[in-house]
Write a structure and sequence with these properties.
mainly beta; 4-stranded antiparallel sheet; 3-stranded antiparallel sheet; 12 strands; globular; metal-binding
């Protein structure tokens, strides 16, 4: 199972080499997420409309190794935007992937940009 986690490594904005055109803005729920596939990765993309921001992270929850984070609830923890796994309620920062419960490794996060009504997710490869 660890091999599955190994393919997810986050990307910082300054390291983006590829902007993947994920879908139209209208294809994503307001204040919620959806899953897109990039190569062999499942990526959770969130339209955090209340904050007027977009976030992307791996869809794989490292707790039970399930592809479910895109279906998690989003909110904030002391000003940090977060997603809660819908199965186990483990929470992760949408900004840097940190596990806010402190009992798991961080998840991979990716930059997002919106251009001409489309959502793009940034990757190193």
């Amino acid at each position: 199972m660890i091999e599955i986690l190994d393919k997810y490594s986050g990307t910082k904005l300054e390291d983006v080499k590829v902007w993947f055109k994920a879908a139209k803005v209208a294809d994503f729920p307001k204040d919620g997420g959806a899953c897109v596939k990039y190569k062999n990765k499942q990526i959770a993309v969130f339209n955090f409309e209340r904050l007027n921001k977009w976030y992307a992270c791996q869809n794989l929850c490292p707790h039970k190794m399930e592809m479910v984070l895109s279906r998690g609830m989003i909110g904030d923890d002391k000003g940090i935007p977060k997603v809660a796994c819908p199965l186990h309620k483990k929470t992760f920062s949408l900004e840097n992937g940190e596990n806010l419960n402190g009992d798991l490794d961080a998840i991979a996060t990716y930059p997002v940009k919106i251009e001409e009504g489309f959502v793009y997710v940034g990757f190193q490869e």
